[in-house]
Design brief:
heterodimer; A: alpha+beta; four-stranded antiparallel β-sheet; three-stranded antiparallel β-sheet; 4 helices; B: mainly alpha; 3 helices
């Protein structure tokens, strides 16, 4: 009996499709967002702390609005920061035994999927430009498919060399498997009339 | 004061909704732990959700306390 893997590891997983490798964007993608948060937090806290001694009792309402405004901005920024962190978990690149998938998903706004069949892949380019990308070992992978107008681009992939190897190995295995299947089908097709013939002969002799 | 309490109540509700959506997704599509539940090799998603919850609730409590202290002194 065939194993049913439908939608087991990710949405849209096909029957008998096995997950080979899964990765998400490198943590360096989150660093600017974290830095932004720190800067905003520092500016707002600084502004409030600087403003407090300057205001007397007469303009208390203004100070109250300033503090509430600052606190609301920080609250919104906390949510933004954590939602981006959670989105990073959902935004994945997957290699299975049939295809390469790019899942662009976020908690609330996005749910896109882009895929390329392994046998369609013509060329894969690995790009690691710049100090940071080489220092922290992440980069871009461009998968070229002749039938597609635009190549499949996977940005900020951690350890791109590994991903590259996984795709190549999966592709080689897939092509080998397809060839074997075709060969088996061919030999079965050749045997079929022969079997019928022999059965007919044997039937005739029996009669 | 009531403004801040309302804002933080909405904030906590939003955090609950986000965490629920995330947990629901992770339960629906169970992937081998080595592939999915780690962020940078050492950081698990459940810890991130806990930090998120503590940050939101903690910030709410802290900001209300600060505002209450300032209100009684300056405002």
């Amino acid at each position: 009996m065939a194993i049913d893997n439908t939608n087991k590891c990710f949405h849209g997983q096909q029957r008998e499709e096995i997950l080979i490798y899964m990765t998400r964007k490198h943590w360096m993608v989150l660093l600017p967002i974290f830095m932004e948060f720190l800067v905003v937090f520092a500016i707002i806290t600084g502004a409030i702390l600087t403003a407090i001694p300057f205001f007397g009792a007469g303009i208390g309402n203004f100070l109250g609005f300033l503090i509430i405004g600052g606190m609301v901005i920080i609250t919104v920024w906390i949510h933004y920061l954590f939602i981006e962190f959670l989105n990073n978990f959902l935004d994945t690149a997957i290699v299975t035994n049939y295809r390469v998938l790019k899942i662009e998903k976020s908690l609330f706004l996005k749910n896109n999927m882009d895929m390329v069949d392994l046998h369609e892949i013509q060329d894969i380019k690995k790009m690691q430009d710049g100090i940071m990308e080489n220092l922290f070992n992440y980069g871009k992978l461009v998968i070229v498919v002749p039938t597609m107008l635009e190549p499949l681009v996977l940005n900020s992939i951690p350890d791109p060399e590994r991903f590259f190897r996984k795709v190549n190995n999966a592709k080689r295995d897939y092509i080998y498997e397809r060839q074997q299947r075709k060969l088996t089908a061919l030999t079965q097709n050749q045997r079929l009339p022969l079997d019928i013939f022999t059965n007919e002969i044997s039937g005739a002799t029996r009669a | 004061m009531y403004w801040l309490i309302t804002i933080h109540s909405i904030s906590i509700a939003f955090m609950g909704l986000s965490a629920w959506l995330m947990i629901r997704y992770l339960r629906k599509y169970k992937v081998p732990e080595s592939h999915y539940q780690r962020l940078w090799g050492f950081f698990r998603i459940k810890y991130l959700l806990w930090i998120y919850a503590f940050s939101v609730v903690g910030w709410g409590a802290l900001s209300i306390t600060i505002f209450y202290a300032l209100e009684s002194k300056w405002l």
